[in-house]
C-alpha cells in the first residue's frame, strides 16, 4: 500500500475492476501500436484486458489492480489505469471517489510506455 488505508485500496481496486470490465466508466486510449493491429488481434488483446484477473504481489504491489501485462497470441500488451480530476487536467485528489475522479486506461505495447 502507498500509505492509504486498506478500505481506500479496496475501493480503488473495486472501481478499477469495474472500469476494466465496463469502459463507459472512464476513458480508454489505444496506443498507435495496438490501434495498428488487425481487427482480430486488436479484439483479442482488448478482450484479454477485460477478463484479466491474474493479479499477484509482483504485478500489483499496491493492490489497486491498476496495471498489468496480458499475453495473447504471441503478443504482450500493457494496460495502465491513471486517475485524473473530472476536468482531465490534474491527477485526482482522491482516486477512491468516483465523483472526483475520471479513470483513464491506456492499452499499449510495453515498449510504447
List keywords for this structure.
alpha+beta; four-stranded mixed sheet; 3 helices; DUF3768 domain-containing protein; DUF3768
Overview of this structure, please?
By secondary structure, the protein is of the alpha+beta class. The protein has one domain (6-112). 29% of the residues lie in helices and 25% in strands. It is built from three helices and four strands, in the order αβααβββ. A four-stranded mixed beta sheet has the order 1-4-3-2. It is globular, with a radius of gyration of 14 Å. The chain starts with 5 loop residues before the first helix and ends in a 5-residue tail after the last strand.
Summarize the structure.
The protein is an alpha+beta fold and 113 residues long.
Mean pLDDT: 96
Kindly provide the radius of gyration, computed on alpha-carbon positions and rounded to a whole number of angstroms.
Answer: 14 Å
The fraction of residues assigned to DSSP E strands is 15-25%
The main pleated sheet reads as:
4 strands, mixed
Structural class based on helices, strands and sheet pairing: alpha+beta
Count of domain modules: 1
Count of helix runs: 3
Give helix and strand order, one letter per element, not per position.
Answer: HEHHEEE
> What's the count of strands?
4
In percent, how helical is the residue content?
25-40%
Note poorly predicted spans.
Answer: none
Biggest sheet: strands side by side, in what order?
1-4-3-2
Silhouette: globular
Distance between the termini: 23 Å
Pfam family, one: DUF3768
Organism: Microbaculum marinum
Protein name: DUF3768 domain-containing protein
